[in-house]
Design goal:
alpha/beta, 5 strands
């Protein structure tokens, strides 16, 4: 059975001239064979379109062939008519030949009748051929459609079965994958949740501890606030901070607490640094007064005004603060400065750096306090630097004071070193005498050993017992024997 379109194409080409074969009384063997092969062929679905195109090409060629034949018929009839007319004219030119003219006319009528009959038969043959070809094409197309539909149904069933099996396999694999993913996800979630819960619990515990610390801190801040609202408590806090700085930098002998430097006023300053006097002895002392001040109300009002950005309130609060600082400086000058018992200046200690920086921010205030009241303002950092410089000065003075003592000690060491040299000479002589004595003893010992070589030796234990040596020598002799 052929699987290509060549046999069908050959059959279609032979069908174009089938009417000639039928007029001849039969069909060609090639045409019948091609038709049988083409009619018996089972068309594959992919080739349906190709076969359909070939059928339509065949039909179009037959139509064009029939149209050509019909267009040639008038020409043929015209040629025959012209020939007959020529014969008739020639016969008519000879009027005596009437019988010939009659025969020509009869022949012309017979020819025209045969031509008409041939044309009718040709039309009927062409119509029959077209009808049979159309029926064959329709039948072939129907059979191909049925075959294609059956094949499509079979293919559809096969595809449906494969799709169902593929779907079932995919569902099984998806179930396995889902189960694996669920297990891994469950394990991961449990692990992550456990870690997260642990972290959260640790954080909550830390927050709980922090809240406890914050509560303690809040309580301490509240206590500090209550303390700072009391004037006496604020003064005590400033004194405590000042004493802590002095204790960290200076020795207890270099400063004193609750000193009365001015005998005229009889006032007692919180702390005073002990400086050496002009005579340089310990009884001559010059005091450097240091007093702690903390105008907390004025400073707090200034901070509150700056937070609300009230320029008028800020300016008023700053003027009140400067006025309070000037009043403190005036009190320190009148109460604690009394040269030569004290230095010609004193130090006002401000316990916070914010307050100290606010005082320095006011232009000309520091110079005014130094020039008019002989008072120097210092914060915690500035006071520490000042006390460190004083400590270096104290060290220099101590070195100068101890230099004469060090010189006397060096002179005594020099004298004793001369005596030490004499003693070393005596010791050397004694060591030389002992060395000579040991050498003489060694010579005698070797002489005695030479004399005793001929004497038989006793065992160690017997010799120790005979000579009456101590038990330690006996034990040592036993150890040597065992070895």
């Amino acid at each position: 059975m052929p699987r290509d379109a060549s046999a069908c194409a050959a059959w279609i080409s032979t069908r174009r001239w089938s009417y000639t074969s039928r007029q001849r009384g039969g069909r060609s063997s090639a045409g019948r064979a091609s038709r049988s092969q083409c009619e018996g062929q089972e068309f594959d679905p992919p080739r349906l379109h190709q076969y359909t195109q070939l059928v339509f090409v065949y039909l179009g060629d037959r139509d064009s062939l029939m149209e050509g034949l019909f267009s040639l018929l008038p020409i043929i009839f015209a040629a025959i008519s012209v020939g007959l007319l020529i014969v008739v004219v020639r016969k008519l030119s000879n009027p005596s030949d009437d019988k010939t003219g009659i025969l020509i006319r009869e022949e012309f009528r017979a020819t025209r009748k045969e031509s008409a009959e041939a044309s009718r038969e040709l039309r009927e043959e062409v119509a029959g051929a077209q009808k049979s070809a159309s029926e064959a094409v329709v039948s072939s197309i129907g059979e191909m459609a049925k075959n294609n539909e059956a094949r499509l149904d079979k293919l559809r069933e096969t595809l449906d079965g494969q799709m169902r099996s593929l779907q079932e396999s995919n569902e099984k694999k998806l179930d396995q994958m889902r189960q694996t993913v669920d297990e891994k996800l469950q394990n991961t979630l449990e692990k992550r949740l456990g870690e997260s819960f642990k972290i959260v619990s640790d954080r909550l515990e830390a927050v709980h501890r922090g809240l406890g610390d914050m509560q303690n801190l809040a309580g301490g801040v509240g206590d500090l606030k209550r303390m700072l609202t009391n004037v006496k408590a604020r003064g005590t806090w400033g004194e405590f901070q000042l004493g802590d700085i002095l204790e960290q930098i200076l020795t207890p002998s270099q400063y004193a607490k609750n000193v009365q430097p001015n005998s005229r006023s009889g006032e007692t300053v919180e702390y005073a640094v002990r400086l050496p006097g002009a005579r340089g002895d310990e009884d001559s002392t010059v005091w450097l007064p240091i007093d702690s001040k903390f105008p907390q109300e004025d400073y707090q009002r200034l901070i509150d005004a700056e937070e609300i950005a009230d320029s008028d309130a800020v300016e008023k609060s700053r003027r009140d603060l400067i006025r309070a600082i000037e009043k403190f400086a005036k009190d320190i000058n009148s109460k604690y400065i009394d040269p030569p018992q004290t230095t010609d200046f004193a130090i006002m200690f401000l316990p916070t750096e914010g307050l100290y920086s606010e005082v320095l921010r006011y232009p000309g205030l520091g110079e005014k306090l130094q020039n008019e009241y002989r008072v120097t303002v210092a914060g915690p950092t500035t006071l520490s630097a000042l006390l460190n410089s004083l400590r270096m000065g104290f060290r220099t003075l101590a070195i100068e004071k101890r230099s004469s003592e060090v010189w006397n000690i060096l002179a005594a060491v020099k004298t004793e070193f001369g005596k030490f040299e004499e003693i070393l000479t005596k010791v050397k002589k004694q060591l030389d005498t002992a060395s000579n004595t040991i050498d003489q003893t060694s010579v005698r010992t070797r002489s005695m050993e030479r004399k005793l070589r001929e004497v038989e030796e006793l065992p160690a234990k017997d010799s120790i017992k005979l000579l009456g040596l101590d038990k330690a020598s006996l034990v040592e002799a036993d150890d040597e024997t065992e070895e």
